[in-house]
Amino acid sequence: MVFFEWKDEYELGLPDIDLQHTMIVNMLNELHVAIESGDPEGIVEKILAKMLLYVDEHFATEETTMKGLGFSGYNAHVVEHEVFRGKVNALNERHQLGQSVATDELIIILINWLKIHIAEVDQEFGRFVHEQSEQSRKSYFSDSTAQTHGERS
Question: Which of 24, 34, 67, 102 could make an SS bond with 43 (beta carbons 3.0 to 4.6 A apart)?
Answer without folding.
Answer: 34
